[in-house]
Amino acid sequence: MPETDIIAGRILATIHPSWRAELDAAAVEAAAEWTAARIVDGEPVQPAPGNIFRALSRPAGETRVLILGQDPYPTPGHAVGLSFASTPQMRPLPKSLVNIYTEYESDLGLPRPESADLSPWTDAGVMLLNRVLTVREGATNSHRGQGWEEITGAVVQHLAQRPVVGILWGKQAQETAGVIGPHRCIQSPHPSPLSAYRGFFGSRPFTRANALLEEQGAAPVDWDLSGQDRGHGAGGEEPRC
């Protein structure tokens, strides 16, 4: 079997069967094959093949809140397939995540989390999705316009058919507000240090999301990250925002 097919298979294997039923199989396979070809040609792509569709690894019906980001961290080893998350061992934390944790403390009154592991949120019904699912190392937005937006747009369209709240951070994420419905979205600047001061801080996304869920008759999310994997040791250089 050609190496491209092997890598594409690893990329696709992560998708939960319930999501396969909702997405255009040809578009998904084309994106996987395009990415696999880039890897075979020697392009350093993040995240690892098995993590590219990690946000879709859980059943489609579980999601109550969508946190939508831009594209993966471009620093080698930092992207894990969940928007704004990184490995439990990552030190220092990504600057955008530091700002998210500042708002988390302020909004929820909970202790500041210690690691970049956000898997407790995915366990609680939160999807951590990027608009674009891959990136060339060191080059933010390098894989825009390669088919990912159509796939993630289809994900958003499916989620919009039931009670859901969209937490849309930044302009690229906010392009989907019309699909979800602005009344079900929390929109603010990206938590990057370059923009967080323009309205991200003080936006109270976590408590507002739960209020919007309750208005739709859905259960609120338990945002507590005290059970996160804290990792051991250092994680290398700081990732880009």
From TrEMBL:
One of its GO terms (cellular component) is cytoplasm. It comes from the Bacteria. This is Uracil-DNA glycosylase. It is an enzyme of class 3 (hydrolase). The keyword Cytoplasm applies. Residues 219-241 are annotated as: Disordered. Residues 56-213 form the Uracil-DNA glycosylase-like domain. The active site is at D71 (proton acceptor). Residues 227-241 have a biased composition (Basic and acidic residues). Its EC number is 3.2.2.27. One of its GO terms (biological process) is base-excision repair, AP site formation via deaminated base removal. One of its GO terms (molecular function) is uracil DNA N-glycosylase activity. The keyword DNA damage applies. Excises uracil residues from the DNA which can arise as a result of misincorporation of dUMP residues by DNA polymerase or due to deamination of cytosine. It catalyses: Hydrolyzes single-stranded DNA or mismatched double-stranded DNA and polynucleotides, releasing free uracil. Keywords: Cytoplasm, DNA damage, DNA repair, Glycosidase, Hydrolase. InterPro entries: UDG_fam1, Ura-DNA_Glyclase_AS, Uracil-DNA_glycosylase-like, Uracil-DNA_glycosylase-like_sf. It is found in: Cytoplasm. Its main location: cytoplasm. NCBIfam families: PRK05254.1-1, PRK05254.1-5. Pfam families: UDG. Belongs to the uracil-DNA glycosylase (UDG) superfamily. UNG family.
